[in-house]
Amino acid sequence: MNAPVTPDVLTLPRKLPDNGRVNIVGLTRDQLREALVAAGTPEKQAKMRVGQVWQWVYHWGVRDFARMSNLAKDYRALLAERFEIVLPEIVTRQISADGTRKYLVRIAGGHEVETVYIPEEGRGTLCVSSQVGCTLTCSFCHTGTQKLVRNLTAGEIVGQLMLARDDLGEWPVPGAPKDETRLVSNIVLMGMGEPLYNFDAVRDAMKVCMDNEGLSLSRRRITLSTSGVVPEIARTAEEIGCQLAVSFHATTDEVRNVLVPINKRWNIATLLDALRDYPRLSNSERITFEYVMLAGVNDSDADAHRLVKLIEGIPAKINLIPFNEWPGAPYKRSSNNRIHAFADIIYHAGYASPIRTPRGEDIMAACGQLKSATERGRKSRAEIAAEAAG
Ligand code: SAH
Ligand code: SF4
């Protein structure tokens, strides 16, 4: 492991006190249209104004109405009076030795979530949070030790992408040649929270991110990870159409009940039925089965054989995640030999089985290590241990 890097504190302006203005960030096109009309934009012009404002905010990254030079001066003034363009605030930014950036982000009410940027060769992935804490209590997950505080709004979800682009300096410069390699080219909804328990906000936020005249991320570059909220899976296909990842993690209901307790509500068979329909409903590619490798718990050869049998017939790839430890965690990471033996079985059954390299471990930015240190109401070690024991 690399030595920890001291947080580099950014001083950005604090959000203004509530001033009755509508924040544009996170509104869908329809919502923006409605808001512009309510503010006095003539119906007949509304569609065009939505297009103009949209481009300024999401294509050019402009935050100041005065800079929207294709709008009349008095219309800019009207917008400034009734609207604002506000992102959540970056409180700290830590940069790992491997280049991973972890942002501690403050949202309205003083709550905090984490967003992680993972640079890779020719691309970069932003891991976005959807809730402060989580109602679910997966026994291996740090976020699961923190009670749910609240859902993020669509604006707070889109805002995470925008603030990462601010920090990386990734907004287009007028007149400059178009750069085809994007720093943030992919989004994974794998930060804090269960995205399918905040469906509407996540859907609206992803619609904004996918819009071609703005942030313009293709639905194929967005992956939503769920612990298995079965009733929302078909909706995800129909209303978002992004790639799906599922936190599978076990091959028997007995073990999955302990690791991913939502399994007691929707068991493995029910989950697999919903997954079978997903590619057709969403016209998307393979489903990613995430599988955290926990020593002596779910990592035997028998587990690997059961896993390939269970997912037979589903276009899939299996992402093996070496367990990332956190203080007080009740599990240990499987050995490298064990992980490779497990991966071999899956590979020989015909599945891609990449082993996820932990990124940003030195700054606790790796999968499942996120948790806002500031939130009260976290669970005790005894509670975690009791849950882990089932
Ligand atoms: N709530 C969603 C998305 C957030 S978790 C879900 O559960 O899918 C993103 C991924 O990290 C999930 O697959 C989760 O199971 C995994 N994860 C959680 N804690 C982990 C840990 N300590 N080490 C490795 N992976 C972990
Ligand atoms: Fe919540 Fe996902 Fe963590 Fe489970 S793994 S506690 S669903 S964030």
UniProtKB/TrEMBL annotation:
Record family assignment: Belongs to the radical SAM superfamily. RlmN family.
Protein's name in the database: Dual-specificity RNA methyltransferase RlmN
A GO BP annotation: tRNA methylation
Example of a GO MF term: metal ion binding
Known catalytic reactions: adenosine(2503) in 23S rRNA + 2 reduced [2Fe-2S]-[ferredoxin] + 2 S-adenosyl-L-methionine = 2-methyladenosine(2503) in 23S rRNA + 5'-deoxyadenosine + L-methionine + 2 oxidized [2Fe-2S]-[ferredoxin] + S-adenosyl-L-homocysteine; adenosine(37) in tRNA + 2 reduced [2Fe-2S]-[ferredoxin] + 2 S-adenosyl-L-methionine = 2-methyladenosine(37) in tRNA + 5'-deoxyadenosine + L-methionine + 2 oxidized [2Fe-2S]-[ferredoxin] + S-adenosyl-L-homocysteine
Species name: Paracoccus lichenicola
EC number in record: 2.1.1.192
CC terms in the record's Gene Ontology section: cytoplasm
UniProt KW keywords: 4Fe-4S, Cytoplasm, Disulfide bond, Iron, Iron-sulfur, Metal-binding, Methyltransferase, rRNA processing, S-adenosyl-L-methionine, Transferase, tRNA processing
Domain of life: Bacteria
Primary enzyme class: transferase
Residue sites binding [4Fe-4S] cluster per the record: C134, C138, C141
Domain Radical SAM core: 120-364
Known cofactor(s): [4Fe-4S] cluster
The gene coding this protein: rlmN
Active site (record annotation): E114, C367
Role description: Specifically methylates position 2 of adenine 2503 in 23S rRNA and position 2 of adenine 37 in tRNAs. m2A2503 modification seems to play a crucial role in the proofreading step occurring at the peptidyl transferase center and thus would serve to optimize ribosomal fidelity.
Chain coiled-coil ranges: none
Note: Reaction proceeds by a ping-pong mechanism involving intermediate methylation of a conserved cysteine residue.
